[in-house]
Every structure is written in structure tokens, then in C-alpha cells.
Design goal:
Largest sheet: 6 strands, mixed
Cofactor: Cu cation
Mean pLDDT: 94
CATH superfamily of the largest domain: Cupredoxins -  blue copper proteins
Low-confidence stretches: 1-26
Subcellular location: Secreted, Extracellular space, Apoplast
CATH topology of the largest domain: Immunoglobulin-like
GO cellular component, one term: apoplast
Radius of gyration: 24 Å
Shape: globular
Enzyme class: oxidoreductase
Catalytic activity: 4 hydroquinone + O2 = 4 benzosemiquinone + 2 H2O
Number of helices: 5
Strand content: 35-45%
CATH class of the largest domain: Mainly Beta
Strand order of the largest sheet: 10-9-12-17-14-15
Number of strands: 33
């Protein structure tokens, strides 16, 4: 018999020291170390076994837990043939852009056999975010939750839940997602769609050969549960509901919101939503489905299926009933194309705008930008037959510029003053050729290719209007901005009117977030303060659109003070 470590004097000394470290400075937080071994391992879903890229042999990947103010040192070791990079989605990365993660934007990818330590501190954020691969389509299996707790001693602005549960939505492909996008880019057509949606990696009982792979949430009556919802799916916005239960939204994208109740919510790829679930006061003698299925606005093919998990109440003591005998209740989700639900849901989101959690909306604007976002075409290569519109290749763009990824990381080129041949600082602030964006599309749908960026002086206050277009069909686009949160000050349908629409902007308590859906056939206006020096990617979080070029980058220059300058690169920064 060995001596229990938990009762050994050495452990007690260590525990006392560890506790002292935790308590010594709650303002600065502590340093937390994680190690991510990126490896291949076999996973079976829907009776298909395939080798997937994963972290530490887990799918979804491991949960990162930290407090506001903590420093994170996450060593990522690449044991797979693919190049790898990891993005800490939604983390502000103040002056630590080297740790942001998008390949060829803030770093060269981590090559096979190499490693990199992502080093960043969580400043002024608390709630739910997530991490995912940021190269090609590897994030199909490389993702996991980031749980940021408030500083020690700081309560939630809502009643403390009995339990907290991450619920991560994903997409499962029976084929290798890398082969799926590679084939699509070669043929110019749309990629094959996923075979299932998943909750915490499990497709659930509505798919063939999947009933054993079902997420079950066991709850007790009369309790409150904080569900940390994350949409890590590649290409689909999702409706979500739990049958016969009401949810209270309290947080999105790690920002507290004015709480509101809803039976169904909409969550785009790249977004997170924290909801409070109050269970029924007594044992209900029933079981309940929680389901998610896509919100679809585009004209392309999509995975028209539904993932289901089970909400099951723990049996009371001495219960004679088996839950197998109970009725099963299923939620009713909105229609696949219910844009009015999407609009109404978005309109309910408001910042707390309290003394403790203010909404610091830029009231004056230094620079105005107007970006069209949408699809387009590229010419088919000579002697090739392409499967895009009218024999072309599908493309996507911002202001009709389809972003060409460089072969050197943009941040390195910027920091060392070596931009020649890597990027040009001439991204247009508005469309080069204006047209009736939501009316009849122009005859010429060809995009321009280029690696162009916007350069902003430090502390520039920015207003950006993003306008969907009708080229190849109107579609909702979830746009994600790295390095910043922004305020969603307005949205509407049709073409943005710069003379009338700004009068309706909400500059008091707009929602603050890092990913926003540009409405199908409409526009959204955001404001942010460029107070974070570095190179910051902005792209559609529908992965197929990013692959087609719906992406761009902002460069924010250093300020004059030492704490307004980008820190120098770490010694182990990967090389291209």
C-alpha cells in the first residue's frame, strides 16, 4: 500500500504554496500551463472510422479554464503531417498578436515535429470563448472550449448556477475535411457537405448508426444550470432549443448582456452564448430532446440534418419508474430560412451598460469604412473544366477583393518593415465600383485577387458598415474580427443608406461581440477602437467562404507610449 499523495506533508506544503500563489495577487491573476500534443487518432461516428487530427487524443479537444487576469502558456507540439496553428478565438491578445494564431497572418504554421508556446494574458474578459485550428479546414476536429471565470471574489451578475456545462456544436465528415476542401478548390465547385452535426462530438440518435453516440445532460429538479454554448461548426449557423424549457441568455462572446428569455436561440460559427437553464421544480416523468439544425440563407447545398442530445432528470430516490417508459418531448425549431427569427433574436441582444460593465461605444468616428461581403467568381484555368457558375470557379471577397494568403506571416513582415512583395497597404475603404448591392447583380462577377490591408493609426475610432450582396444570391455571413470586440450599432435590410440609417444607430447599449452575422440581403454597422497594435485578420466564419477569399486584414500601428506598442516576437516563433 502506498501513501496517499493528498495526505502527504510534501503535498500539503505544495498545496499551501499553491493556495498562497492563488491568493497573493487576485488582480494580476496566476500563470496557467497547458500542453497540446497534436496527434492523429481514430474516431468512429455513423459507423465510419477515420483518423482525425486532435489534441491530446480528445475529440472535442481539452477544456481550458482560467480566470480574468490570468496568463496562459500553452505549448503546442505538432506530431502530424499537416502544418498546424491554433487560434484562441475571441481573446483580445492585447499587444500579444504573436499568440493570435491564424496561419500566415500572425505566424507561420507549426511544422511537423516542431512546437510553439502561445503566451497571452486574459484582460477584461470573462465568459465563454473557444480555441480552434486556424489553417485550412483542420478546425473540423481541432477545437475545444475556453472557460474564463471572473476574478476571484467577483460574482456573476446573475445567480450562481448549480452547475456549468459546455455544449459545443460541431460538424462531422465521414470523409477527410482536408480532402473535401482540396477537391472543391481544384474543381471550383462547392465542397461536399458534412454528414452530421454534433453536440460535444456526438451526432445523437436521429442519424443512422448513432444512437450510442448521444450527448446526455443529467439534471436535478429545481436547479439552475449555466450552459456554455459554442458554435464550432465549419459552415453552418444553427438554431438550438430544449423541449419544454425556457433559456435565459446572459452572455455572448464573453460579454455580459441584459438577460432575456427565449425558447430558441441562433448561434453562428464563431459565436458563443451562455444561457441559464432552470430545471422543473419537481421530477417531470419525461425526457427531453435538445436539438440544433441549420439556419440557411444561401443557394448552395447544405447539411439538412438535426443533431439531438437528451436532457434527462435524475431519478428520485426509491423511484420505481424507468426513464425508458417516459414520453419524449421534442422542440419545434424555426424553419430553415427563418430570417425574421434571426433578425428578432439579434435585436434582443443588448449590453449591460452598467457602471461595472460599461458599453464604451466610440461616440465620434475617425474613419468610416463600407465593405461589401459576398460571393463572386474566378476564371477557370486554361484546359480545365470548372464546376462553379457558368464554368467558372466559386470565389468570395470583401469590396470585390479576394484575399490571397501570403507565404510569409503578415505580422512578421509588418514588424520587421519587410512588406515589399508580401502585402500592400491599399485596401479600399469602399467598393471600387459601386452597384445596386441587393438589387440585380452586375454582369461581371469576377473578383480581384490580392493581399491588401488597411493601416490604422493607434487609437483610431472606426465605423465599419458591412453590406451583403446579391451576387450569386444573398446570404448571411458571420464576420469575425481578431484582436478586438466591436459594438453592433445598427443593422437593416436592403442597401445601407448613409444619409438616413445612422440616425437609427444605438450608441447607448449596443451588443458587444467578436463575430456578427451580416444579414442576408442587408447590412450591419459596427464600431471599435483600434487600441491594439498588430495585424488583425477579419473573415467570414463560414470556412468555405474563407477558403474562397472572404477575408482581409487590418494593421494597427504602435502608439507613442511603451504600453501602446506590440511586444517583440518570441524566440520560438515558427518559421515559414
Amino acid at each position: 500500500m502506498g501513501v496517499s499523495l493528498l495526505s502527504s506533508p510534501a503535498f500539503l506544503v505544495f498545496f499551501s504554496f499553491f493556495t498562497f500563489c492563488l491568493l497573493v495577487d487576485p488582480v494580476l491573476g496566476i500563470t496557467r500551463h497547458y500542453k497540446f500534443d497534436v496527434k492523429l487518432h481514430n474516431v468512429t461516428r455513423l459507423c465510419h472510422t477515420r483518423s482525425i487530427v486532435s489534441v491530446n487524443g480528445q475529440f472535442p479537444g481539452p477544456r481550458i479554464v482560467a480566470r480574468e487576469g490570468d496568463q496562459l502558456l500553452i505549448k503546442v507540439v505538432n506530431h502530424v503531417p499537416n502544418n498546424v496553428s491554433i487560434h484562441w478565438h475571441g481573446i483580445r491578445q492585447l499587444r500579444s498578436g504573436w499568440a493570435d494564431g491564424p496561419a500566415y497572418v500572425t505566424q507561420c504554421p507549426i511544422q511537423t515535429g516542431q512546437s510553439y508556446v502561445y503566451n497571452f494574458t486574459i484582460v477584461g474578459q470573462r465568459g465563454t470563448l473557444f480555441w480552434h485550428a486556424h489553417i485550412s479546414w483542420l478546425r473540423a476536429t481541432l477545437y475545444g472550449p475556453i472557460v474564463i471565470l471572473p476574478k476571484r471574489g467577483v460574482p456573476y451578475p446573475f445567480a450562481k448556477p448549480y452547475m456549468e456545462v459546455p455544449i459545443v456544436f460541431g460538424e462531422w465528415f465521414n470523409a477527410d475535411p482536408e480532402a473535401v476542401i482540396s477537391q472543391a478548390l481544384q474543381t471550383g465547385g462547392g465542397p461536399n457537405v458534412s454528414d452530421a452535426y454534433t453536440i460535444n462530438g456526438l451526432p445523437g440518435p436521429l442519424y443512422n448508426c448513432s444512437s450510442k453516440d448521444t450527448f446526455k445532460l443529467k439534471v436535478k429538479p429545481g436547479k439552475t444550470y449555466l450552459l456554455r454554448l459554442i458554435n464550432a461548426a465549419l459552415n453552418d449557423e444553427l438554431f438550438f432549443s430544449i423541449a419544454n424549457h425556457t433559456l435565459t441568455v446572459v452572455d455572448v462572446d464573453a460579454i455580459y448582456v441584459t438577460p432575456f428569455e427565449t425558447e430558441t436561440l441562433l448561434i453562428t460559427p464563431g459565436q458563443t452564448t451562455n444561457v441559464i437553464l432552470k430545471t422543473k421544480p419537481s421530477y417531470p416523468n419525461a425526457i427531453f430532446f435538445m436539438t440544433a439544425r441549420p439556419y440557411v440563407t444561401g443557394q448552395g447545398t447544405f447539411d439538412n440534418s438535426t443533431v439531438a442530445g437528451i436532457l434527462e432528470y435524475e431519478s428520485p430516490p426509491n423511484s420505481l419508474h424507468s426513464s425508458k417508459m417516459f414520453p419524449l418531448f421534442k422542440p419545434i425549431l424555426p424553419a430553415l430560412n427563418d430570417t425574421s427569427f434571426a433578425t428578432n433574436f439579434a435585436s434582443k441582444l443588448r449590453s449591460l451598460a452598467s457602471a461595472q460593465y460599461p458599453a464604451n461605444v466610440p461616440q465620434k468616428v475617425d474613419k468610416h469604412f463600407f465593405f461589401t461581403v459576398g460571393l463572386g467568381t474566378s476564371p477557370c484555368q486554361h484546359n480545365q473544366t470548372c464546376q462553379g457558375p457558368n464554368g467558372t470557379k466559386f470565389a468570395a471577397s470583401v469590396n470585390n477583393i479576394s484575399f490571397t494568403m501570403p507565404t510569409t506571416a503578415l505580422l512578421q513582415a509588418h514588424f520587421f518593415g519587410q512588406s515589399n512583395g508580401v502585402y500592400t497597404p491599399d485596401f479600399p475603404s469602399s467598393p471600387i465600383i459601386p452597384f445596386n448591392y441587393t438589387g440585380t447583380p452586375p454582369n461581371n462577377t469576377m473578383v480581384i485577387n490580392g493581399t491588401r490591408v488597411v493601416v490604422l493609426p493607434f487609437n483610431t475610432s472606426v465605423e465599419l458598415v458591412m453590406q451583403d450582396t446579391n451576387i450569386l444570391g444573398a446570404e448571411s455571413h458571420p464576420l469575425h474580427l481578431h484582436g478586438f470586440n466591436f459594438f453592433v450599432v445598427g443593422q437593416g435590410f436592403g442597401n445601407f443608406d448613409p444619409n438616413k440609417d445612422p440616425a437609427k444607430f444605438n450608441l447607448i447599449d449596443p451588443i458587444e461581440r467578436n463575430t456578427v452575422g451580416v444579414p442576408s440581403g442587408g447590412w450591419v454597422a459596427i464600431r471599435f477602437l483600434a487600441d491594439n497594435p498588430g495585424v488583425w485578420f477579419m473573415h467570414c466564419h463560414l470556412e468555405v467562404h474563407t477558403s474562397w477569399g472572404l477575408k482581409m486584414a487590418w494593421i494597427v500601428l504602435d502608439g507613442e507610449l511603451p504600453n501602446q506598442k506590440l511586444l517583440p516576437p518570441p524566440a520560438d516563433l515558427p518559421k515559414c
